[in-house]
Write the structure tokens for this entry.
Amino acid sequence: MKTKKFIAPTLKEATEKMKLELGSEAIILSTRVIENYDNGFRKMFEIVSAYEDEQREITEILNQKSNVSSANNHGLDFEKKLSDFKTVIDKSLKDKNNGKAQNLTSLKDEIQTIADTLFERDLSKDVIKLVINYLKKSKSYLTVDNLDNYVITGLASLLNTRSFEIEKRKSGRVISIIGPTGVGKTTCIAKLAAISKIIHNLDIGIISIDTYRLGAIDQLRIFSEISNVDMLVAYEPSDMPKLIAKLKNKDLIFIDTTGRSQKNTAELKKMTSFFSNVKIDETYLALSMTSSPKNLLDAAEKFKIFNYDSFVFTKIDEAVTHGSMLNLSLRFQKPVIYLTNGQIIPDDILAADSEYAAKLIYNGNFN
Ligand SMILES: Nc1nc2c(ncn2[C@@H]2O[C@H](COP(=O)(O)OP(=O)(O)OP(=O)(O)O)[C@@H](O)[C@H]2O)c(=O)[nH]1
Ligand SMILES: [Mg+2]
């Protein structure tokens, strides 16, 4: 089961909203009145509802996929995608509801348009199938007018996000950010360090292991001096334990790594040795949404040697499509923790939110 909140001026409207999005099987877990809600209404009603989790279905479809698809096509054969997808749509519309009257022709056209849009947004065949299955399940509630909302809800329910727990622990929690060259790793660390320090009043340390790229250390040193953050440099893997020991009383220690091409497996392997004698609490893989879906899949695969636990998707402001974030999160079964949307430190970073991401993927605009 998953939960979702619905807020409306009356309990009846909140319940209707819930049924419209989640279907009649959704259960109300709790209701409450929110005073002084910031929308002109003095009181609003909030429902927390529970609905069926799609996770089992996702796992099943992903498992089927890994058995059948060849290693290098990654479901990105567009001709095949289109024909498979049309079959799913036709089947879905054949078992159409016999209850509520719908304009089947226009609904079918609308679903076809949705299919085309999802292809354009770079969603993989598997994800599109999941969305269509979700529409199929909701078929008795679908109208031409609410289809877009259903698609967004479907995409949001598929995207796994996680939030960062801010704790003043003083126990040297270590977070490293890895990823291909130039994706925005250092900028992301500067944003997170500045927010953690200024807004959450945490004590921050930074370790850079990027002694490879000219100017990389200076880039971070200037930031650290301006923001009064301790910054240390590891030249060798053997430096790491003593540097982390020096920063052990900080709340957070960020490790900035050298950008490496995922194709350079020797260098990637060499970089893992910086992490072999120290405990890293969290590792984020930063990937730029401006890269092609194939490159992103390859990077997410090759960087698995770092055992990363979450994705940071950068440059969503520059990217034309954002479907890959959902493809990757599902395929690698890792949540998204942050999205970055510009060059400004610290403003241009967002805690990942599945509904925002779903709208971003489907509508294509990031505001
Ligand atoms: N438009 C946009 N630019 C970004 C974003 N994040 C970073 N950048 C820019 O991308 C460029 C590279 O950023 P860095 O933080 O140096 O990237 P990096 O991954 O540390 O690069 P290497 O260490 O060389 O691998 C800089 O010009 C950043 O300002 C973002 O979210 N949107
Ligand atoms: Mg860098």
Q: What stands out?
A: The mean pLDDT is 84. The chain has three domains: 2-51, 55-158, 173-363.
